[in-house]
Amino acid sequence: MYVVFSIFVAVVSMIAIGIIVWKVVQRQESCDSKFQAKLDADDERARAGREKMQ
Questions:
Q1: CA angle, residues 15, 11, 9, in degrees to nearest 5
Q2: 24 pLDDT tier (thresholds 50, 70, 90)
Q3: Model-level pTM?
Q4: Of 8, 29, 30, 54, which is most buried, counting CB atoms within 10 Å of its CB?
């Protein structure tokens, strides 16, 4: 029973951390145009890499 509870706590903790990180990144994206430009450039590089592999 203790193992099940430990796994549950671990999963809930990971979800909570993910939500916090998601909100921080979203806030930074909305307030920082340079950061958004870096993300857009990264998306473009990823797209170009995927197209090159096909």
A1: 115
A2: very high
A3: 0.59
A4: 29
